[in-house]
Amino acid sequence: MGFKPIPLFLLPLLIFTILSRADQALGSDQNRNVSHRNRAALDAAGGVGKVALKGRKQTSGCNLFQGRWIFDASYPFYDSSMCPFIDSEFNCFGRPDKQFLKYSWQPDSCSIPRFDGQAFLNKWRGKRVMFVGDSLSLNMWESLACMIHSSVPDSKTTFIKRTPLSSLTFQEYGVALYLYRTPYLVDISKEDVGRVLNLGTIEGGAYVWKDMDILVFNSWHWWLHKGVQSQGWDFIRNGSSLIRDMDRLDAFNKGLTTWAQWVDQNPRKTCNGQMQPLTGSTYPGGSLPAASIVSRVLSSMKTPVYLLDITTLSQLRKDAHPSTYGGDGGTDCSHWCLPGLPDTWNQLLYAALSM
């Protein structure tokens, strides 16, 4: 099996991607007689052309994720009423203020290309993109679907929504966007004692992930859930030990390390009433404690990792949550309105794939 570009997202706010050893759109156009996947492997080893995505955060010498939110009258990318893929929980149609839609992310050291859905489809024609994780993966998956749909509104699509695997295919281009729901990435299995979160295995969806051209992973949100109903498991299996619970950061570390090994082996305050982003480029609350774990785990990996670090820019958008306007009747300060912030995540993903 050849190497694939594997974007990884770690959420709720800590998000990063692996974009390495990429084929078609990421490699050099030189040596066209070399297959895309072989050329990608050569690129990763320093052989042919250059790898388009280098380093942990930066693309072409620009840190896409250090910057500020600026008012932009050209936003949003789409009208939620015109996108058929948005769940009610993300549709903030009844929200009376609209200013939160009018901000774009501006890196300090460069300008990023505006998202072009048709260009995305042409560049990734015949490819498969999968978002793997929890409901924030759903948030981003629906965002990308809407962003592309707004560019090609008459394009025929096939939309299948199931658990754990959903898909949206733009038929004319052969581009398929998949969603695989698995909040911990590692397995939850049914055993005699009940539901067991196994920190050392990834088997449940891995057979599906391997067939993708781009993988966008996400985990963190559920690691904080407490209580057997909320967390979705009864016991944790940590090596040979079966335990009721453990330090969640330690569990996250072990689970993410299992994910890293899989990749190497396989190529609150309420948000009600908030209407503007925080100013500046620094989040007052500081970095999340999981950040150091992510850095440590990624630095231990053999596979080169590109860090799509949207944590801080997302933390600054206290104004962009569904709040009380989501369709589930509660106050949602975890997810994001669509159109809204996840569109910027995909804008930056697009920039990372293009620059």
TrEMBL record:
Annotated localization: Membrane
InterPro entries: TBL (IPR029962), TBL_C (IPR026057), TBL_N (IPR025846)
Keyword Endoplasmic reticulum: no
Entry membrane topology: Single-pass membrane protein
Domain of life per record: Eukaryota
One Pfam family this sequence matches: PMR5N
Residue span, Trichome birefringence-like N-terminal domain: 61-111
Keyword Transmembrane helix: yes
Domain Trichome birefringence-like C-terminal: 112-267, 268-351
Keywords: Membrane, Signal, Signal-anchor, Transmembrane, Transmembrane helix
Signal peptide extent: 1-22
Family: Belongs to the PC-esterase family. TBL subfamily.
Protein name: Trichome birefringence-like N-terminal domain-containing protein
Organism encoding this protein: Brassica napus (Rape)
Source taxonomy: Eukaryota, Viridiplantae, Streptophyta, Embryophyta, Tracheophyta
